[in-house]
């Protein structure tokens, strides 16, 4: 086989389908987010509208100070896996902080949210004897891969459908261990799962619950514990999983659960055991961010205000966006080539950076621009975004929604 020819042909077919990913080469600048320097062709400065640093905490003075101090005192890397010399005191402090955030006995850190899902779900499903995993149809790739890797039986329940979950659970031998995996805020549609109903059905059937709060932590609940905190449900969920790389602005992932469960995953998950621990400065920065957002409501309030303003302006301009109750605004295009073209045009002509979201991240025909406002987007930034979208919508004769009188 000619390997190079194979690779190139595969990439060409991705390009033909409009699904080839091009990364914008940008440089975030301390203190100036959402502006960033752009390298390569086109404008030198862009306004970022698609970051998952939802609250701008990646630029927060508290976070940067904590990272600088830890870097100066501990050096660069952790120096090993958690098991072999890599457990730094900053990891221990962060795990305590996360357990407290979710009202759980313990928490366990991983190098990313992806790894935490893959390793924790995979380990629980593989090691609970004869376990059945019930997985929401729209779960993130990291959960799907973890479940697949476990080789446990997997049943998919219809997205956000507790009745379907109930029917599936009713048909499973009551003595088998069962694990229900779902999300709070779904990343691409921004819809919020019926957490209470899923918990009730799971409790009825004696199933454990595993909630991915990656797009909820920091953003919802009085202390940023996520949607489950807002709804007073954290104590009824067996495992809460989150990331430190989105609203907390740094990097890393975690689970929060009982001491026994965390110890079990710590002791058996290869994705935890056999990899270098997060750099201490990263753990210190994440810890400062979690602490800050526990105490401060300001960022969350301003975030919600910005989200509402963008939605309202989109409505006035008749730009179609998917309604939901979260901070994620999917502006629907419905064609991969157009989606990429619009994204390129926004960047080249207006210095507005919104990455096109195409298959397989979203189903074919639902291609979109996923807009994520942050507390640091100004009214002028919003005006410029809406004017530019309006212009390209007219230029391409794209359908508009009815504008309320
Ligand atoms: N879960 C969900 C629902 C996600 O959207 C993502 C990342 N996009 C992850 C987990 C992985 O988190 P991380 O980026 O920290 O690896």
Automatic annotation (TrEMBL):
Cofactor(s) this protein cannot do without: pyridoxal 5'-phosphate
Domain Aminotransferase class I/classII large span(s) in chain numbering: 45-389
Record CDD domains: KBL_like
Assembly and binders: Homodimer.
Keywords: Acyltransferase, Heme biosynthesis, Pyridoxal phosphate, Transferase
Pathway info: Porphyrin-containing compound metabolism; protoporphyrin-IX biosynthesis; 5-aminolevulinate from glycine: step 1/1
Stated name of the protein: 5-aminolevulinate synthase
Protein EC: 2.3.1.37
Family note: Belongs to the class-II pyridoxal-phosphate-dependent aminotransferase family.
Reactions the enzyme catalyzes: succinyl-CoA + glycine + H(+) = 5-aminolevulinate + CO2 + CoA
Taxonomic lineage from the root: Bacteria, Pseudomonadati, Pseudomonadota, Alphaproteobacteria, Caulobacterales
Enzyme class name: transferase
A GO molecular function held by the record: 5-aminolevulinate synthase activity
Organism, as annotated: Brevundimonas aurifodinae
PROSITE patterns linked: AA_TRANSFER_CLASS_2
Record-annotated membrane-spanning stretches: none
InterPro entries with a match to the protein in the record: 4pyrrol_synth_NH2levulA_synth (IPR010961), Aminotrans_II_pyridoxalP_BS (IPR001917), Aminotransferase_I/II_large (IPR004839), AON_synthase_class-II (IPR050087), PyrdxlP-dep_Trfase (IPR015424), PyrdxlP-dep_Trfase_major (IPR015421), PyrdxlP-dep_Trfase_small (IPR015422)
Annotated NCBIfam families: 5aminolev_synth
């Amino acid at each position: 086989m000619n390997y190079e020819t194979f690779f190139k042909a595969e990439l060409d077919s991705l390009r033909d389908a409009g699904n080839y990913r091009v990364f914008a080469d940008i440089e975030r600048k301390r203190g100036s987010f959402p502006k960033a320097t752009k390298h390569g062709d086109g404008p030198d400065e862009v306004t970022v509208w698609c970051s998952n640093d939802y609250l701008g905490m990646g630029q927060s003075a508290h976070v940067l100070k904590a990272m600088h101090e830890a870097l100066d005192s501990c050096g660069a890397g952790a120096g090993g896996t958690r098991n072999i010399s890599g457990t730094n005191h900053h990891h221990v402090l962060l795990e305590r902080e996360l357990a407290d955030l979710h009202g759980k006995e313990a928490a366990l850190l991983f190098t990313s949210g992806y790894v935490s899902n893959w390793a924790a779900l995979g380990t629980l499903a593989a090691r609970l004897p004869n376990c059945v995993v019930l997985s929401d149809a729209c779960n993130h790739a990291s959960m799907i891969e973890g479940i697949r890797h476990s080789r446990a039986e997997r049943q998919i329940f219809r997205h956000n459908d507790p009745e379907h979950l109930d029917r599936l659970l009713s048909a499973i031998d009551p003595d088998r261990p069962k694990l229900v995996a779902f999300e709070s805020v779904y990343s691409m549609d921004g819809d919020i799962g019926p957490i209470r109903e899923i918990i009730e059905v799971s409790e009825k059937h004696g199933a454990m619950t595993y909630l991915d709060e990656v797009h909820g932590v920091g953003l919802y609940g009085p202390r940023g514990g996520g949607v489950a905190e807002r709804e007073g449900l954290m104590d009824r969920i067996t495992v809460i999983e989150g990331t430190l790389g989105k609203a907390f602005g740094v990097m890393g992932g975690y689970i929060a659960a009982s001491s026994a469960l965390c110890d079990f995953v710590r002791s058996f998950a290869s994705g935890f055991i056999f990899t270098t621990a997060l750099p201490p400065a990263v753990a210190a920065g994440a810890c400062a961010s979690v602490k800050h957002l526990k105490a401060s409501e300001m960022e969350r309030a301003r975030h919600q205000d910005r989200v509402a303003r963008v939605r309202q302006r989109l409505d006035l301009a008749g730009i179609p966006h998917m309604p939901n109750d979260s901070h994620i605004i999917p502006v629907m295009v419905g064609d991969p080539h157009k989606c990429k073209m619009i994204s390129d045009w926004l960047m080249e002509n207006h210095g507005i950076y919104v990455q096109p979201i195409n298959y397989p991240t979203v189903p074919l025909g639902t291609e979109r621009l996923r807009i994520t406002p942050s507390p640091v987007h100004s009214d002028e930034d919003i005006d410029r975004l809406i004017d530019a979208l309006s212009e390209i919508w007219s230029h391409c004769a794209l359908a508009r929604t009815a504008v309320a009188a």
